[in-house]
Amino acid sequence: MNENYEKAAEIIVNSKQMIALTGAGISVESGIPDFRSPGGLWEKFDPIEFAHIDSFRKNPKKIWKLFFSMLDIINKAKFNPAHAALAKLEEMGKLKAIITQNIDNLHQEAGSSRVVEYHGNMSRLECLNCNSSYKGDEFTLKGTPPECKKCGKILKPSAIFFGEMIPQDALIESQELAESADAVIVVGTSAVVYPASSIPHTAKKRGAKIIEMNIEKTGLTTLITDVFIEGKAGKTLPELLKYMN
């Protein structure tokens, strides 16, 4: 294991354009369970019934039951040492950007400044009727769905629903980052859901080194990973920083 940390640290030290791809696994230690895991929200709310954009358009008040449950979990969460370690790598000038599939805003709270939100963010609200947008803290999100201040329609969190497209600006920026990256840290994601799964593969084709940090091996491990570090991100990422020092 020490050898893997040393190899990963060497890659980072020698990199000029390193990026990170993060998924649900990095936030589990903050108290946000993977929705698909046992005890996750999909056991309580059928994703086909509650998490599709068509369902929201038909009955937004009903879908806000899911949103309130999600917000209750996210608002209690705090960034953990893994988020802080990535912010530290940016502060050191070694990490250029984070591409995250998470909607919890924890990377920003930890201090990371360039975060590409692949699946949106629960801390912002948008109106599908008039395209107005708001910060979530402009409303009291307790029990009553928030309404647009301009047209009165029920607002939707900017998190991406099933049936919605990935934001075009996130797609373009993440593609540009992947094509220019010389190293990628993959943390807390199996990277099997397209199009996010294409990011490390695109970088690898351009010659980037892939550092994978997960609690178990994934489909990436044997295909493109150069260094695999097994364990919880809240322990492995801070440990990796020690090897750099």
Would you give an account of this structure?
The chain is α/β, with parallel strands linked by helices. The chain has 11 helices and 9 strands. The chain has helices spanning 2-14, 41-44, 47-50, 53-58, 60-76, 81-91, 106-110, 168-180, 198-205, 219-223, 233-244; strands spanning 18-22, 95-100, 115-117, 124-126, 133-135, 156-157, 183-187, 209-214, 227-230. It has a 6-stranded parallel beta sheet, with helices on both faces. It has a 3-stranded antiparallel beta sheet with strand order 5-4-6. Strand 8 (209-214), helix 10 (219-223) and strand 9 form a beta-alpha-beta unit. The two termini are 17 Å apart. The mean pLDDT is 93.
pLDDT < 50 runs, ≥5 residues: none
- Average pLDDT confidence is 93
Oligomeric state of the chains in view: single chain
**Computed CA radius of gyration, to the nearest angstrom:** 18 Å
**Portion in helices:** 40-55%
Largest sheet: 6 strands, parallel
Output the number of helix runs.
11
SSE arrangement:
Elements: H1 2-14, E1 18-22, H2 41-44, H3 47-50, H4 53-58, H5 60-76, H6 81-91, E2 95-100, H7 106-110, E3 115-117, E4 124-126, E5 133-135, E6 156-157, H8 168-180, E7 183-187, H9 198-205, E8 209-214, H10 219-223, E9 227-230, H11 233-244
Parallel strand pairs: 1-2, 1-7, 2-3, 7-8, 8-9
Antiparallel strand pairs: 4-5, 4-6
